[in-house]
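tool_call predict_complex ligand=magnesium ion
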Amino acid sequence: MNLGIPRRIPIPGEAFAPLRALRGAAPWPVKPVRGLFQNLAEGLAAAARFASPGDCVKSGRAGRSRAAIGDLIDVTAIPASIDDMLALLAGADYVADRSLATVLFLSLKMGRPLFLEGEAGVGKTEIAKVLAASLGRELIRLQCYEGLDIASAVYEWNYASQMMAIRLAEASGQTDRERLEHDVFSERYLVKRALLRALEPAPGGPPVLLIDELDRTDEAFEAFLLEVLSDFQVTIPELGTIRAASPPIVILTSNRTREIHDALKRRCLYHWIDYPDATRELAILRAKAPRTPQRLSAEIVAFVQRLRKEDLFKQPGVAETLDWAAALTELDAVALDPEHVSDTLGVLLKYQDDIARMQSGVAHAILEDVKAQMRLASHA
Ligand SMILES: Nc1ncnc2c1ncn2[C@@H]1O[C@H](COP(=O)(O)OP(=O)(O)OP(=O)(O)O)[C@@H](O)[C@H]1O
Ligand SMILES: [Mg+2]
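tool_result ok
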């Protein structure tokens, strides 16, 4: 994978193979990174994956300073093309289509937040987790809910500790009010929540900030978020403005229980994640549930795809497909049969009306269709 290592990184000494981080050769902690690499770029890509800002990467006489390694990770860990992005996601068992990989690639390249909408269980939250894990970034998650406020999302003062500090100061005879005020409104007494933490520098590069299920918050919070996402800064009256030196990678998700305001959408790139088609759903199943017998996987996917065409109160997402595969595998099924389907409908459908409708013969008819489709495919 070409991770786009820029030549301008001035690592002295082209002979980077084998690349080594020499334990004990530097006065700061060094992680060993050993291996034979074809070229400088490949070696650096490997170093970037393992090293963090406290590390020193050395090759022969070449060495790098601590900060530079942090910069290196920052620069190199971003995929250099849409194909690299697809490969990065696939490496973490996320099966994306090209349009999703493109918008993700652009979001990273342009430093713009990515707003993902889609039905429940189609892999919106998973994207942020996969990105953080495969780019070696910290994942900071802000789970939205009605009534979410700045104290829970950004910061609050630790009043108990502040009170204690004031009492202790009084007891020790300290009378300088201004100094006391300055002391208790310092970072030491600040409880940092997700949004503030996401603005701080982190080892390995800016974190991935997941603002999950934004549609659950109210509009006042959305308006506040608008400010944070525009400037990547937060103002704390007692402390001043805190600005991210490098903006975090921001992923926002929504299940579209309400429309998100245009002003916020305008700050983001947008992508609608649909239910996967049969080929992609089968690939997801292979990646995420490799224990499921092949024939069973194919039948599960065909059944679920067909089920989504029914008039249901809540259609099954990919999460339900995976759960169903796990359940049927536990039951030692190797293919779908009417009994298994009927007994496990509660894994796929979560509303009694939907289940009752399926049990009234619809599930059986779908199963017949699926079996016929499989027979046809095997003769083709
Ligand atoms: N394209 C995909 N590749 C691999 N796994 C996927 C994919 N899409 C969904 N999944 C899996 O489906 C499950 C549900 O995904 P996730 O929780 O991200 O859905 P969601 O869209 O955030 O759902 P909700 O709206 O309910 O929060 C996870 O286990 C995830 O790994
Ligand atoms: Mg989710």
